[in-house]
Amino acid sequence: MKRPKLAGVFLFVGFLLVYLMFVKRHYDTFQPGAYRQPPHHRLTDNDMSVSAAGPSYQYGIMFDAGSTGTRIHIFKFQIENKESPKLAHETFRAIKPGLSAYADDPEKCTSGIMELLEVAKSSIPSYLWNATPVVLKATAGLRLLPGEKANHLLDRVRMVFLESPFLFRDASVSIMEGTDEGISAWITVNFLTGGLHSTNLPTVGILDLGGGSTQITFSPQDERTIQTSPIDYIRSFQIFNNIHTVYTHSYLGLGLMSARLAILGGVDASPLGGTTELVSPCLAPEYSGRWEHADIVYTVKGQKAGEAAYEACVNKVEKVLYRKVIKASEAADMDFYAFSYYYDRAVDLGAIEEKRGGAITVADYIDGAKRVCSGLSISPLQGPFLCLDLVYISVLLQELGFPSHKQFKLARTINQVETSWALGATFHYIESLKRH
C-alpha cells in the first residue's frame, strides 16, 4: 500500500515544479525592458518624453533604398507644448551597393541592413527603441526589378526589421511611388524653410530631376488650378494638424537618363535586331563612345555636321516631349527649389558652386545649352552629353510652364540638412501612426 502513496507524492511534487517554472517564466517575460511594443502600438506623448519637466524627444529611422546604395537617416525631433516638431539632430550613413544588387540572392542584403540598424541603436536611447518607427522606402532600383524579385528583397528586409527592437509594421517596407517622392521632398523643403508651420511664410514648390522620372510639386493658391488640373495631380494630406493640398505629378520615363536614351533614338528594352549603335545631332560630329543604360552598353556617335547642333538637338528633344507634359500655369509665379540633375548640370555650366549652390534661370540653361552645343568639340572634360542634357532641361522647364526669366533656387542642403524626400517621408509616416 506504500507504493501508491509514494507515487502520489512524486506526482504532486512534479505538478508543483511545473507550476513554479510557469510562474517564473511569466514574471520574467514582463520584467521592465523585456517587453516590446506590439506592431500596432500607437505613439503617445509619454513614448517621446525624456522627462516631465524637460523637452520631449522623438526619433524616426528612414532607410532610403536607392539604385546605387542604401542610406539610413536617423532623425531626432524636439517637441514642446504641442508645437510643430523641431529637428534637433540627424545621423546619416550609407552603404553600397543598392538592394537591387542582391536580386538573385536576397539573403545577402541582410548584413548591410543589420549594419545600419546598429548605427540606429547607437544613436537612440534604448528605452525609446520600441517607440521609434523604422521605415524603408525603395526607389528606382527596385522599381525596375521584376515584381517577384523585388518582393523577395522586401520580405527579407521585413524579417530583419521584425527581429530588431524598433517599432515596425509590414507596410513600413515598400517601393515608393514617384508622386510620394515629390510630396515628401516638398514636406522636407517647406519644413526646413519654415513655410510648413507658419502662416506668415508662403510655401515653395519643388522640382526634382532624377534618372528615371521627374517630379513637380507645389501648393496652388488659385482655386482654378485645382479645378482645371487632372484629378490625380491634386493631392491632400494632413501633417502637423494642418491639411495641405498640393499639385504634384511624377513623369515616369522623363528623368534625365531615360530621356537621354529616347533622344538618342533608343528604347527602354533590349535593342531590336541586336544593334546598340545610336547616332544623334546632340553629340559632337566627331564623337564616338560607349554609354551604359539599364545594363545595356550602347555605342553612341555624333551626327555629321548639317544644321546647327543646338537647333537640331532642340528639334529632337521637342519630339520626345511632345504632348507628354502638362503646363502648370500658376507655377510660374511661385518660388521653386530645384534638385538632382538640375543642380548637377548647373554646376557643370559653372552657374553655381558645387558645395554652396545658388540660383539659376531658365534663360541660363538655354544660353548654356547654346554655348555648349555650338562648341561641342572644345572641352571633352565637360562630357559628351552636356549639350543634350542642357537642351533637355531647358525645353522641359518651358514645357512645364516656366518662362525664360523664371529663377530657381538650387540647394543640396538647407540649414545643413539634406534636401531629400527622407525627412518629409519620416514626418508623414509618424503622423500616420498617430492617427491609427
TrEMBL record:
Family, as annotated: Belongs to the GDA1/CD39 NTPase family.
Pfam families on file: GDA1_CD39
Transmembrane segments: 6-23
Name of the protein this chain belongs to: nucleoside diphosphate phosphatase
Residues making up the signal peptide according to the UniProt record: none
Species annotation: Channa argus (Northern snakehead)
Key words of the record: ATP-binding, Hydrolase, Membrane, Nucleotide-binding, Transmembrane, Transmembrane helix
Binding site for ATP: G211, G212, S213, T214, Q215
Gene3D superfamilies, per database record: 3.30.420.40, Exopolyphosphatase. Domain 2 (3.30.420.150)
GO molecular function: ATP binding; nucleoside diphosphate phosphatase activity
Active site: E181
GO cellular component annotations of the record: Golgi apparatus
Enzyme class: hydrolase
Record EC number: 3.6.1.6
